[in-house]
């Protein structure tokens, strides 16, 4: 009699095989946008070995908080390295929020920490930052596997949530509200987490990410990134079983040539379709520009007084983190500070379904 394989081992095997094909397609597209910054590192052995476009050293000491590192996952075949920043003064008696921050393709947690300068804002605003790192064994280009079969996507999501659970168990002071935000593939994965585990997140956000649950193959992923596929709303609604997804923030450059800006609109429409029936949705739009930074068109969708979706479209920006540090790939210093804008949204009071806009 043939021995039956474990469903979990089968899922790991499929994920590994598909990631080789999927990651190459995404990396080629992403590389075209990051090549200018990456050329300076062409001779760097660390770049070649790490799969990171612009490598950065480990985050340095910061007054008012501390970095730590760890490794966790679902078992020997699904372990991930992570970095964790905790601001000073956090106690178990008054838990602080935890932001799950997911890097994009050709990045790792150190490079993404350098680009976003997340520790400084976390220290000033009083929240912790958890930055898992995709393994090259899971995806050669370090992309989070945001598309594939439901089993593959679900496995990636469970690995990330296992890290969240591990960190919160080890640090009770981090059991405040949980949020997720990511760039590109990380953004698509953050929205996937919000749909897979809606009760766990206070809000989720995507910066320059593809619409979640819009592709099952590498070919379809390329189509999704070009704005030619839509999310499977029916399947998502079935999974949610009448539950509303968490509030959503979307940030996208209007000139993004890697992930078409239409993905942000598609994700917004998906979220609005998933709202409970009978809710009247009000749309408000405005345009803001401060100093010489890129202008931003902000569109809010509200149900009553509750802000459900916010879309920030950044004029003149490509596939890059808005307001990111100079010298890092996928980083545009001329844009408004994306992480600060995200935290403004995440920190909105939502008790008893009430919210205010900023």
Structural write-up:
The chain is of the alpha/beta class and 358 residues long. The protein has a single domain (7-242, 258-277), classed as Alpha/Beta hydrolase fold, catalytic domain (Rossmann fold, 3-Layer(aba) Sandwich), CATH 3.40.50.1820. Helices cover 35% and strands 21% of the residues. It has ten helices and twelve strands. It has helices at residues 7-38, 45-50, 109-116, 118-125, 150-170, 185-196, 218-225, 233-240, 262-273, 338-346; strands at residues 65-73, 79-87, 98-102, 128-133, 178-183, 203-207, 248-253, 281-288, 296-303, 306-314, 321-322, 331-332. The strands form two sheets. A ten-stranded mixed sheet has the order 1-2-4-3-5-6-7-10-9-8, with helices on both faces. A two-stranded parallel sheet has the order 11-12. Strand 8 (281-288) and strand 9 form a beta hairpin. It is globular, with a radius of gyration of 19 Å. It starts with 6 loop residues before the first helix and ends in a 12-residue tail after the last helix.
